[in-house]
């Protein structure tokens, strides 16, 4: 149990499942701070170089955790990232794993301009439920929640559900 007035939520999932869209909308409606880890890595040089094969920065997990420690301790953060096993368990009051139909995911990633191997790798991760298993292995069962993220209606329902959860948390910790 936490003594923070505002919760920390981790929104995770395979790339293309709607993490950033969900997190941004929840933050806008709740007043909590949205932290897109991918953006933070670039803005604050929290990486150890560029991965040419995957066309992304090599995230330095220690640097990311050090940079987020004070904010996470204060509470009121919605953290959005495709990985979750390196964040301290104590940071999060809720871990949401977004999941998407494989065909939709394929189309979303292709539309982003991901190369065939990167699309295939991410679709395989979704098929194997890698992120959900990682979350279940890294956090207490009662804080991990899987949500479907196939349609705009599901996105809207997920946002509403998360905002209601935040309000309930705040009322219980006032």
TrEMBL record:
LID, as annotated region: 111-121
Cytoplasm found in the keyword field: yes
Residues given in the record as ATP binding sites: 16, 18-21, 112
Keywords associated with the record: ATP-binding, Cytoplasm, Kinase, Nucleotide-binding, Nucleus, Ribosome biogenesis, rRNA processing, Transferase
Matches recorded under InterPro entries: Adenyl_kinase_AK6 (IPR020618), P-loop_NTPase (IPR027417)
Catalytic activity: AMP + ATP = 2 ADP; ATP + H2O = ADP + phosphate + H(+)
Pfam families per the UniProt record, alphabetical: AAA_18 (PF13238)
Role, per record: Broad-specificity nucleoside monophosphate (NMP) kinase that catalyzes the reversible transfer of the terminal phosphate group between nucleoside triphosphates and monophosphates. Has also ATPase activity. Involved in the late cytoplasmic maturation steps of the 40S ribosomal particles, specifically 18S rRNA maturation. While NMP activity is not required for ribosome maturation, ATPase activity is. Associates transiently with small ribosomal subunit protein uS11. ATP hydrolysis breaks the interaction with uS11.
Quaternary structure (record): Interacts with small ribosomal subunit protein uS11. Not a structural component of 43S pre-ribosomes, but transiently interacts with them by binding to uS11.
Name the record gives this protein: Adenylate kinase isoenzyme 6 homolog
Organism: Haematococcus lacustris
């Amino acid at each position: 149990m936490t003594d923070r007035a505002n919760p920390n939520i981790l929104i995770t999932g395979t790339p293309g499942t709607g993490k950033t869209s969900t997190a941004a909308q929840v933050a806008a409606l709740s007043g909590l701070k949205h932290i897109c880890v991918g953006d933070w890595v670039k803005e604050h040089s929290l990486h150890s170089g560029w991965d040419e094969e995957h066309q992304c920065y090599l995230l330095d997990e220690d640097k990311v955790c050090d940079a987020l420690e004070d904010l996470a301790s204060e509470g009121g953060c919605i953290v959005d990232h495709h990985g979750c096993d390196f964040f301290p368990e104590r940071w999060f009051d809720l871990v949401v794993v977004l999941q998407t139909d494989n065909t939709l995911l394929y189309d979303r990633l292709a539309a982003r301009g991901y190369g065939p191997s990167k699309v295939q790798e991410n679709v395989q991760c979704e098929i194997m439920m890698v992120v959900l298993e990682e979350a279940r292995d890294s956090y207490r069962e009662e804080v991990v929640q899987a949500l479907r993220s196939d349609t705009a209606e599901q996105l809207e329902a997920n946002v509403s559900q998360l905002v209601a959860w935040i309000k309930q948390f705040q009322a219980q910790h006032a």
